[in-house]
């Protein structure tokens, strides 16, 4: 596997950091999740729990091993230092400065292991006036500009329910980590370095042409709900049994779309003759389309519009998604056996490699399940391990 | 730089693919953007254009070079084949099957260069019943389940304005490409392989705990607008001159939040005494908070709440974002000089590497600006290049 043999010490919890280390683990890295004895990652106790397993935890911690370690104790810190000496990557999502307060500042880490890639995921980056602020997805959605462009024209700015900024930051952190591993080979001895991704910066980077327009013109985009700002007809239409999304992105598609609806004659009318006219009369053309779309089912329209070459799709809820034949064909739902706890379904691998594919090597770990074997692999003797356990440091 | 010396032949256009190759170029890869003679990437003509430069194009094509090549001509195809023989990576975002129709199917590519990493970005993946459907961000937002959880409780499913699925797919494709480059070193001779990311799979992977809950319970999440589904108070509040977002994610923060507002006494009242009670009376407590928040400015509240340790942020529009001192401190706005066309502002690098940082090496290219030098570097003689130009293939 691409990251086979890469040793990752993972101090992250909750979502952004664990998503980064999941992406690394899916590509074959040996990720050791370091958790507080007795408690562990709070996500172990969040969301739907079946047979003692949080399905939320299971999804984002597959392919990792768990080591319990009390990082508030001197003994725990000594263990961490020894592990870092033998690791390739450290991933953490503490607030900036916390790792240094724990005794693992940049200089110390370099002294322990000059080859180490140190990846941080945080809210706003480690420098600048807001560096110390606590990071929450909702706050990053507000501050990045995302909320200002999400929502309907006559409503307030709107957050998206999925924690987009957490996941995007985790994905950038994984990309940066792998780039740093490639760079390490070129930097020669002592080729480790710091890598950083943040919730706010990640979400800003996804504003695409909206950011380009604002930077060029100083104008901010208006919220337009499901309407395309400069194309009509385009958007959500209501079939008899649900909604369909249609992206009629240029005149050729508009003609095919209206023809498939039996409404091609609308294009002869001056108020719908070109895109500019249709933008002025968007409500009117949408109402005429909706009336027609309402006369048949979602499935009927999707088949007919696809046959006519009109980009369209069913508006699916998550149950629809996980029963969708395309989603299943793409193996985007995986079932992982958790020994003694039954099967758990998780979402699949979003990036596919033909010869070295991501795969499930093991389920999300029980708390501290691999403490003994991990410490042994990192060079601790059996007596040391026993003493650490007896002292409650592990 | 991490990808210095990595030769990328880039057949992509519009957004998802170009974002992937921008991420590779930002990390030092030599990306040659192959464009149709005379026309080039349609994004060159989209969005705000100043001094002849599309700022949208400039943002997503920085650090690349441009080669014009007529891929419909036999001569153009022969040039591409020769280039691929010397390249490390090919990136394409055609519909599945189109590259093979052009004469570059998997077998042929392997014959040309068994070391080649072939990265595809498409709508739904190259296999399965919807593989051939055209890919649009809006359709992926509908089909992935994203729209079903975006929006207010009493409204219809809502798309987000930024083309999230395009950018997320591009980011996964870049991650997969770099992983495949790492794998190539381990696979030995002939270590190339196919890499694929899709708009739909990428967005599905961002559903986070929402997907875990649905997979565990069969229940689909309700849309809740800016309200947190299980925490109150939490959300958007209206100051005298704008909105603030507050994430009071647990009881300790709720107490600090209400204390900062001078409303701590509310917690003594049975209808607001605990989270369950506050969820039942969310409208009432939100109204009381809004009344108080409306008495001061955004800046006043942000300062006071941050001092009190309450996660909060200003709801910023994109002009606010690009003037935000944190965003500027993080260098998330870059100014790139386009010779003869003046400076262009683009968003910065969302992942930071300490020793081998991403940087602007050159602006987005003029159409065909590097045709001659690229062909020379790929081994074409001056006479060949002249003949190709004369024939209109370049």
Q: Please, could you describe this protein's structure?
A:
By secondary structure, chain A is of the alpha/beta class. Chain A contains 18 helices and 14 strands. In chain A, the strands form four sheets. In chain A, strands 5-2-1-6-7-8 form a six-stranded parallel sheet, sandwiched between helices. In chain A, strands 9-10-11 form a three-stranded antiparallel sheet. In chain A, helix 1 packs across helix 8. The longest helix of chain A is centred in the middle third of the chain and has 24 residues. The interface between A and B is large, with 143 and 143 residues.
Structural features:
homodimer; alpha/beta; Rossmann fold; formyl-coa transferase, domain 3; 6-stranded parallel β-sheet; 18 helices; 14 strands; elongated
Q: Which CATH architecture of the largest domain in chain A would you pick?
A: 3-Layer(aba) Sandwich
Q: Could you name the CATH class of the largest domain in chain A?
A: Alpha Beta
Describe the main β-sheet of chain A briefly: 6 strands, parallel
Total count of helical runs of at least 4 residues of chain A? 18
- How are the strands ordered across the major sheet of chain A? 5-2-1-6-7-8
Number of structural domains of chain A: 2
